[in-house]
């Protein structure tokens, strides 16, 4: 089987199913559907870049922007604000982990003050997940990676920004917050 077809078949196996836990690739699959329907979507991420790089196909110029090289954690939120300021007509979506979000979450104030239209998706696992995973591979345990997060929905609302906390996966496709 050619490599591209094998990857597409593998990606199809990540679709979210009713009653199952959310997964990063499952949510990316939904974003891909929105992109395919003519909605330009930007992806910016730190720790989730492996899934984005592998599973998300850009269908427009600059449709998938990834922090690469040193992979600066915390770039997703301020990067999305900058992208929205650069091209206000474009729908910007940024995906990030909770650790990366908290590194620059104060930029929600900038987004609100400058009336920036962007959607931020925060994957919350209360951990610096990639660091934890690499520590597990290297040492068989992780140290200092757990996070005690605020209620991220209420945190966004404290800046006057609409916040959502997604429930069961069966509701996601029909109730996706529109930017």
Description:
- The protein is globular and about 50 Å long.
- The protein has a two-stranded parallel sheet with strand order 1-2.
- The chain has about 180 residues and is mainly α.
- The termini are far apart.
- The protein has helices at about 5-10, 25-35, 50-55, 75-85, 100-105, 105-115, 130-140, 150-160; strands at about 90-95, 120-125.
- The chain has eight helices and two strands; from the N terminus they run ααααβααβαα.
Compile the SSE list and pairings.
Layout: H1 3-12, H2 24-36, H3 49-55, H4 76-86, E1 92-97, H5 98-103, H6 107-113, E2 118-123, H7 129-139, H8 152-158
In short:
The chain is built from 8 helices and 2 strands, in the order ααααβααβαα. It is mainly α and 179 residues long. A two-stranded parallel sheet has the order 1-2.
User: Which ranges are low-confidence, i.e. pLDDT below 50, for 5 or more consecutive residues?
Assistant: 168-179
Termini separation comes to 38 Å
| Number of beta-strand segments | 2
Q: Overall pLDDT, averaged? A: 80
Which radius of gyration do the C-alpha atoms yield?
16 Å
Beta-strand content bin: 5-15%
Largest sheet: 2 strands, parallel
Q: For this entry, what is the oligomeric state of its chains? A: single chain
Strand order of the largest sheet: 1-2
Portion of residues within helices: 40-55%
Assign the structural class, choosing from mainly alpha, mainly beta, alpha/beta, alpha+beta, or little secondary structure: mainly alpha
